[in-house]
Design a protein that fits this description.
The chain is of the alpha+beta class and about 800 residues long. The protein is about 50% helix and about 15% strand. The protein folds into 5 domains: about 180 residues, no CATH class; about 100 residues; about 100 residues, no CATH class; about 170 residues, no CATH class; about 190 residues, no CATH class. Helix 12 crosses helix 20.
Length: about 800
């Protein structure tokens, strides 16, 4: 062992350039592997930190709005009866998953302090089904009126403990009916879970218990070990058939219309989706903004990139070893002549491989620590701290040890397999099989490099395509903010506030909606249009909303200011809904369709455009709290924001303006996860190409050492330096071309599979493949030329003398 360690240190000192390149290449590879695996671990363990996640299931009926997918929501009557009648269910309950904040008041030092608090409504069984860990108090006390439970983080932020009280609302904060008592504190849900943002709980009570037509609640059930989830799902379908039929028969007289037999028989399928697999389950129809759904394609793409980078680094290690074979073989054979056992020599080389790998691993961990506080860390969902990723450290260390054994065994066997008599000869000639092996290794690197470049460029093009996609409305120079004042419910008060804002010459228009305009599922109406059940996405807006955002009206008329005060609802529907039969003059609920707009994209581009309607009128009693302000040319953003804050304080001192951002930023936030991951893929693709070129460097070093006599003879026979360089480059040009022919179809298939997850996707351009080929070819030729120049330009007499 001592001799092997000494030989390793000697190698580092004697072959400085080769050792440095080896360590740098391996360090970059292991750093990339660690960072990528941190992100992959975050994705793959999503929801798995919740105790018994494998026994917790989401009740997911077939969506009433998209028959091809499953809904995260279900009606309360069926699900509550399912829990009561199913012996397989240990516990179950619902949560209204949408995330909302409201003003809350807490008492500090005798004064009431206004803060923002986030709360979700749940039923009592949800707590037991998810196994929330109580820190203080009793979560069962949530069933009492006017009580709340807080996660540790929210309790610390609000400065509250069990027994304290808070008030919901704006200026009505002192009304006793909105006073809430904190009855329990619980541990926060894991950060990588579907419930990470759930930090405050209130009881949902009896809401919608008699409404099988309201799909508002996510039901989760914990099954007993060994229970059959399919049997429970079939029971839900049976209950739905009975309950919904009774509901329609009961409501027929109220609606004053006859219900068809087809409507009465609604055999809606249902599935129970395990919580530990929910994140990647693509059967879910759409994605709620506050219920994240991951992409298995992206995650496995990341994992593949990590493994390919390690593969390239290992090939480099082997290539660098072979590059040094001509200069190391003489010493090895001399040792064998003097009696050194082959086993000892092989152990020494294997020890050298482990030394390089472990040294590179330590350097990689140091780089990861350095990256922790940089901007790059923001592209990874989890912390890069070593202490937070011990399993990843173990995997990384294990990979490096296995890699050392795999990459070190063959070179150790190869260099010690020659006859010692070769030491007496003044040269080393590699076998044809050896050359083919090295060429094959280099070919793998080229194929991987070309494939990664194609994939990386296509992911970046998709991101650019999404950013530049025509959404059907003008979102440039539009500022958005949230102002939750209760006074905005009054149309006259709203107009007063909007007029005060528009008095600023830097503001060209002011409008508002009941919630975010571009979002997945804010409000969806299930309605029958021409005997077809249609899910209609709805946005509640002010009458000038379409005008401020530049949305044209194709038929009929736009909203008028008096519609804001009218108790009759007015609808403007998209062209898709009009084609389904809802024309101008048609009726929707108690309102009239007055216009038709284009098929604008009000949802993220992962999803197709669905039937859609704008609605205005006082009948919905919706507070217009999400503002959209069009800015004039040459605006001063800081001055505009400060002016809005000042006017908001004068309008309602008890409410605060929050969440200033440009509309473009609000839209792009829907693609933040994909953008982060594709950026990581792009950066590490460049890294993979750099490491692969180090392999080219190693092979060229090998060849220049091996072919010095041949080059000298050619120069004696009249060959020029340029001709020698062409000789060295010719085989690499052929090799890159062959590798491109192999990599192109594989790259196309992978990119096509990845783009399939988008409803709207960029075309796969031919020039991406051509660019990947040209980049790899040019950089390879440059590398070969740089490495070969010294040998090609060397005096032939010096080459022959050294041989």
């Amino acid at each position: 062992m001592k001799i092997a360690f000494h030989n390793f240190l000697t190698t580092l000192r004697r072959y400085k350039v080769s050792s440095l390149l080896n360590i740098v290449g391996l360090t970059l590879a292991f750093t990339a592997f660690y960072v990528i695996m941190v992100q992959v671990r975050w994705e793959m363990t999503f929801n798995r930190a919740i105790p018994d996640a494998g026994r917790i299931y989401l009740v997911a009926p077939c969506s009433p709005f998209d028959e091809t997918g499953l809904s995260i929501n279900s009606p309360r009557p069926e699900s509550e009866q399912l829990i009561a009648q199913s012996p397989e269910i240990e516990a179950g309950g619902c949560i209204r998953i949408w995330y909302w904040e409201q003003p809350v008041w807490v008492r500090r030092g005798g004064d009431l302090l206004r803060l923002q608090g986030a709360f979700n409504e749940i039923s009592a069984g949800f707590v037991e089904a998810l196994g929330l860990k109580t820190i203080e108090g009793n979560l069962k006390a949530l069933s009492r009126p006017n009580t709340v439970a807080l996660a540790r983080s929210q309790a610390d932020r609000l400065g509250l403990r069990v027994g304290d009280v808070l008030w919901f609302g704006d200026e009505e904060n002192r009304r006793p009916e909105v006073q809430k008592e904190v009855v329990a504190l619980y541990e926060d849900f894991p950060a990588n879970s579907s419930f990470a943002r759930i930090v405050g709980l209130v009881d949902v009570g009896d809401q919608d218990l008699d409404s099988p037509n309201n799909w508002n609640d996510c039901y989760f059930v914990r099954l007993h070990a060994g229970a059959d989830p399919d049997a429970v799902a079939r029971r839900w379908s049976e209950l739905h058939l009975s309950i919904y039929r009774d509901y329609l028969e009961r409501m027929a007289s109220v609606w004053g219309e006859e219900i068809s037999e087809e409507e009465l028989n609604d055999p809606r399928a249902c599935a129970l989706l395990p919580l530990d697999g929910l994140y990647f389950d693509r059967r879910i129809a759409g994605e709620a903004d506050d219920f994240p759904i991951g992409s298995a394609t992206l995650t496995y793409s990341l994992l593949s990139v990590a493994m390919l980078i390690i593969l390239i680094a290992l090939i480099n290690f082997v290539n660098f070893f072979f590059a040094l074979v001509p200069v190391r073989l003489r010493a090895v054979n001399i040792l064998k002549v003097f009696g050194a056992p082959t086993r000892s020599l092989r152990f020494s080389f294997l020890f050298e491989a482990f030394g390089f790998m472990l040294l590179a691993q330590l350097c990689a961990w140091y780089v990861a620590i350095a990256l922790k506080g940089t901007e790059f860390a923001s592209y990874v969902s989890s912390s890069l701290a070593l202490g937070d990723n011990l399993p990843v450290l173990g995997i990384s260390l294990g990979v490096s040890l296995v890699a050392a054994f795999v990459a070190g065994s063959f070179p150790a066997w190869y260099i010690t397999s020659f006859n010692p008599a070769m030491a007496a000869k003044g040269s080393f000639v590699g076998s044809t099989a050896g050359r083919r092996f090295r060429t094959a290794l280099l070919g793998v690197q080229f194929i991987v490099a070309i494939g990664l470049i194609v994939f990386s460029v296509c992911t970046l093009l998709q991101q650019r395509y999404v950013r530049r996609f025509d959404l059907g409305f003008d979102h440039e120079q539009v500022l958005t903010f949230y102002f939750p004042s209760s006074k905005l419910s009054n149309p006259d008060s709203f107009d007063t506030f909007a007029s005060s804002l528009q008095a600023d010459p830097q503001i060209a228009g002011v409008t508002a909606s009941g919630n975010r305009f571009v979002a997945e599922a804010i409000s969806v109406f299930g309605r029958k249009i021409n005997d077809e059940e249609v899910g209609i996405h709805v946005r509640f807006v002010r009458s000038n909303f379409l005008d401020v955002l530049g949305i044209p009206v194709l038929a009929g008329e736009d909203f008028r200011p008096e519609h804001d005060r009218d108790s009759t609802a007015r609808f403007i529907v998209n062209d898709l809904l009009a084609r389904k039969g809802l024309k101008v003059g048609g009726r929707l609920d108690e309102g009239e369709v007055i216009g038709i707009c284009p098929d604008i994209h009000y949802r993220p581009l992962q999803y197709l455009t669905e039937p859609f309607a704008f609605v205005t009128g006082t009948c919905w009693q919706t507070r217009m709290s999400r503002f959209y302000v069009r800015l004039a040319a040459g605006f001063d953003l800081d001055a505009v924001c400060e002016g809005i804050r000042e006017k908001a304080r004068k309008f309602d001192p008890d409410s605060e303006v929050a969440d200033f951002r440009f509309f473009d930023e609000e839209i792009n936030a829907h693609y933040a996860r994909e953008r982060r991951i594709t950026t990581i893929v792009g950066l590490f693709t460049v890294l993979a190409v750099v490491i692969a070129l180090m392999g080219v460097f190693g092979i060229v070093l090998f060849e220049t050492q091996h072919r010095r006599r041949e080059v000298a003879i050619r120069k004696v026979m009249g060959a020029t330096t340029a001709e020698v360089l062409r000789l060295f480059n010719r085989r690499y040009v052929v090799l890159v071309t062959v590798c491109f022919i192999l990599a192109a179809p594989v790259g196309f298939w992978i990119v096509d599979r990845w783009l399939a997850s988008f409803a709207y996707r960029t075309p796969i351009h031919w020039w991406v493949f051509a660019a990947a080929f040209v980049v790899v070819l040019l950089v390879t030729v440059a590398t070969v030329t740089f490495c070969s120049w010294r040998t090609a330009d060397e005096n032939p007499a010096d080459s022959v003398k050294s041989e």
